[in-house]
Amino acid sequence: MKRMHVHVGVDDLAASTRFYTALFGAEPSVARTDYAKWMLDDPCVNFAISVGHAGRGIEHLGIQVETPAELAEVYGRLQAAGRPVLEEGAARCCYATSEKNWISDPQEIVWEAFLTHGETTDYGSDPALAVLASPNAAPGSCCAPVLTPTPTPTPTQSGCCA
C-alpha cells in the first residue's frame, strides 16, 4: 500500500487536532504536546500537524473520491468539522470537470472534497473562496484563492518527524 504523507505547520495544535479529527472521522494515532499524526486507510495518507517546527505553508489540499456515495460521506465530514463550507457543486478546474465543496481549517488552509467526472480543454476558473482563503494561495492559480500574503511566523526549531 502506498500512503501520501502531508505535514502542516499550525499555530493552535488543539484547535487543529479537533478540526482534523472531525474531518477525518478518526482520532490521531499519535498525539504529543507539539505534534499529532493520523495514519488513515481511507483516504490513504500519513497526515501530520505540528506547532513550533515550521511555518504555515500549504496552498490547498484535497480528498478525491471515486463515487457519489463517498463524496456524500466526505461532505458530511466537512459539515461536522464546524467551519463554513463553500458548496461549489459542478466545477471546471485544472482541466477536469468535478463536483466540489471547500472548507478551511483553523489555520486557513483550504481543503477541497471532490469527485472528478471527466476532462475539459480549458484550465477552468476559481470559485469565490475568499471567505476560506489560504495565506499561501498563488495569484492566478485555478483551485485556490487570490489573497494578500499574511506574515508567516519564523520557525523556532528545525527538524523532521515523519
TrEMBL record:
Q: Which SUPFAM superfamilies match?
A: Glyoxalase/Bleomycin resistance protein/Dihydroxybiphenyl dioxygenase
Which biological process annotations from GO are given for this protein?
response to cadmium ion
Ordered alphabetically, the record's keywords are: Dioxygenase, Oxidoreductase
Gene Ontology terms, MF aspect: dioxygenase activity
Keyword Transport assigned: no
Per its record, how is this protein called by name?
Glyoxalase/bleomycin resistance/dioxygenase family protein
In this protein, which residues make up the domain named VOC? 2-116
Organism of origin is Sandarakinorhabdus fusca
Give yes or no: UniProt keyword Oxidoreductase: yes
